[in-house]
Amino acid sequence: MIDVPLSALEVAMVQTGTRPVETLRDTTAFAQGLEQLGYHRIWYAEHHHSPAIGAFPPVVLTAHAAASTSAIRLGSGGVLAPNHAPLTLAEQFGTLAALHHGRIDLGIGRGPGTFDEATARALRRGAGPTTDAEYHDDVAAILSFLVDEVALDPLPEPWLLASSTAGAALAGGLGLPIALAHHIRPDNTLAALGRYRAAFTPSRWCEQPRVLVCVETVCAETEEEAAWRVGPMDVVKAGLLKGLSEHPFPTPAEAAAHSFTEEERQALAGFRAQQAVGTPESVVQRLAQLADETGADELMLTTPVYDLRDRLRSYELITKHAAATTAP
């Protein structure tokens, strides 16, 4: 049984045969659907110059979803600190938090959000990659500006996104809640959590360690259907294994016809074994296992499947089965 809150990460995949504006419209229906299903929060990821993922700023999606819903928490997961001025982020999310009382999160990450060096430099106005010290300074500045410059009430809830022990140590040292990218680097999860808990220092933001684990989750009525739905993301991942990001998000039929190398098949199978893909029973069991192994306070599900209806159905099946297993 799952005894922690369930949330969602919206990656806004642009499906083959559709336009980005259609993906953008789907994000509204997705937020409203998950609110009806009782999910705790939705975060929006920052990506740039990708044919498979929409380049929609998290702050804009957060604002629109907050105006289109009434209760679910919303925010960035994450907004990437090196791409933005710290004061700008503090002002944007501070304003949202004041407008939507108790519903706004500011999840901060480090990566560029793109595999294209020219795009990364354009985002950073020609600057090169951020050093560890610069990133640490940016995060500290954002937190300081929230309190000293924005000073609205309430403030957004800050989180630090991490997939490494270095990021986990920073989150712990600053006394921030941590969101672990298990859906990206699952082999690092337990080591990063150990580092976070060892480094944790209480702060005004968090009195004790607080952990969210994000897991790729695809649920369907049968194992075969779940495998069919996860196929398009497998194609995207196979491209990333080769250092390529040119693949659009294919249809399930296109994915089924895709030819994978044996090395790719092994890598994808190893990754999938650490996520949660399958029937409601197996997915809920895997999520409960992951929560127990990590001591997570919350699980965030990311479900990169082709059709919005199938994606919402995945979230619905999980809540229904989880509720059934906890019923007296």
Termini gap? 12 Å
Shape: globular
Put simply, the count of helices is 12
What is the overall pLDDT average? 93
Strand content: 5-15%
Widest beta sheet: strand line-up? 1-2-3-4-5-6-7-9
**Can you give the helix content as a percent range?**
40-55%
Poorly predicted runs of 5 or more residues: none
Keywords:
single chain; 328 residues; alpha/beta; eight-stranded parallel barrel; 48% helix; globular
Structure description:
The protein is an alpha/beta fold and 328 residues long. It is 48% helix and 15% strand. It has helices at 20-37, 58-68, 86-99, 117-123, 132-150, 165-174, 189-199, 223-241, 252-256, 262-272, 280-294, 308-326; strands spanning 6-10, 41-44, 73-80, 104-109, 157-162, 178-180, 211-219, 276-278, 298-302. The protein has an eight-stranded parallel barrel, surrounded by eight helices. Strand 1, helix 1 (20-37) and strand 2 (41-44) form a beta-alpha-beta unit. The model has no long low-confidence stretch (mean pLDDT 93).
Short précis:
The chain has 328 residues and is of the alpha/beta class.
What's the layout of helices and strands?
Layout: E1 6-10, H1 20-37, E2 41-44, H2 58-68, E3 73-80, H3 86-99, E4 104-109, H4 117-123, H5 132-150, E5 157-162, H6 165-174, E6 178-180, H7 189-199, E7 211-219, H8 223-241, H9 252-256, H10 262-272, E8 276-278, H11 280-294, E9 298-302, H12 308-326
Parallel strand pairs: 1-2, 1-9, 2-3, 3-4, 4-5, 5-6, 6-7, 7-8, 7-9
Helix pairs in contact: 1-2, 1-12, 3-5, 6-7, 11-12
